[in-house]
Design goal:
Structural class: alpha/beta
CATH class of the largest domain: Alpha Beta
Largest sheet: 5 strands, parallel
Mean pLDDT: 82
Oligomer: single chain
CATH architecture of the largest domain: 3-Layer(aba) Sandwich
CATH topology of the largest domain: Rossmann fold
CATH superfamily of the largest domain: SGNH hydrolase
Number of helices: 12
Length: 258
């Protein structure tokens, strides 16, 4: 009879000890994980702001085409890094810059890029968003003859304006407070071709009307900066800016935005 009583008791004792051991082991894992990776609300409040980093965060974001990318810059700095250098001369707080510009991009491709949602975190966290787009939309017209140029220009301009408005609305739906800056077009062609100058000026004018519709959207003019300095500011491809050209754009950006 005693054996019948003792054996169940021993089994229960062993089971209880096993549960106690497993519970202690699990608790040690949870405590270890909490110490290394998980913070309570009180602990989070005690962490200095400079030690908290966000994935895909950016203080400055650049969107657009080859000008935004920095094609032609011998030092591979482009507008963004050169602007950042100017900013750092007066601001000791280190800024983070993200550039998702794609050479050869047209305005419809920029719409698709933003609509994909892939870069929403960078857009949402940016304090300044620099946009360069439209040059390739306009440059496609170089193959038009005089008979078809006017109609083709109007069609290209209207499509571009619709795309730019879509870009603006999408960005504002993600980040309503960021400062935006649009890099206007310069005329890389000889001043002896007045037709090209007229088209670029009209393109810039229509762009500026859209930019001016947003109180925190700045238009950065480049036409006048390059007008009489093409040999100084264009790269060897005679189309994209060289280092000096990007520097003068960055300085204009800094002058207007800051």
């Amino acid at each position: 009879m005693y054996k019948k009583v003792i054996w169940p008791l021993l089994l229960l004792s062993a089971l209880a000890l096993s549960i106690l051991f497993i519970s202690g082991f699990v608790a040690s894992i949870v405590i270890s994980t909490t110490d290394e990776n998980v913070y309570t609300e009180d602990q989070i409040e005690s962490i200095p702001e400079e030690d908290i980093t966000l994935a895909d965060s950016s203080d400055i974001l650049i969107l657009g085409d080859s000008i935004g990318f920095g094609v032609g810059d011998e030092e591979n700095l482009g507008i963004g890094e050169r602007y950042l250098d100017l900013l750092n001369e007066e601001d000791e707080n280190e800024k983070n810059i993200t550039n998702i510009s794609v050479p050869s991009y047209e305005s419809n491709q920029l719409v698709d890029l933003i609509a994909s949602g892939e870069h929403n975190p960078s857009i949402a966290s940016a304090q300044l968003i620099i946009i360069s787009i439209g040059g390739n939309d306009l440059n496609r017209l170089e193959y038009e003859d005089n008979l078809t140029l006017s109609l083709a220009f109007e069609e290209a301009l209207n499509t571009y304006k619709e795309n730019l408005e879509l870009v603006l609305r999408e960005i504002r739906s993600i980040n309503p407070d960021a400062q935006l800056a649009f890099i206007g077009l310069y005329n890389p062609y000889s001043q002896e071709e007045p037709q090209n100058a007229r088209l670029v000026l009209e393109w810039n004018y229509e762009t500026r009307l859209i930019v001016d519709s947003d109180v925190n959207f700045a238009f950065i003019p480049t036409y006048e900066l390059f007008q009489y300095h093409l040999t100084d500011y264009l790269s060897i491809d005679e189309f994209h800016p060289n280092g000096s050209g990007y520097q003068i754009i960055a300085e204009e950006l800094y002058r207007i935005v800051n």
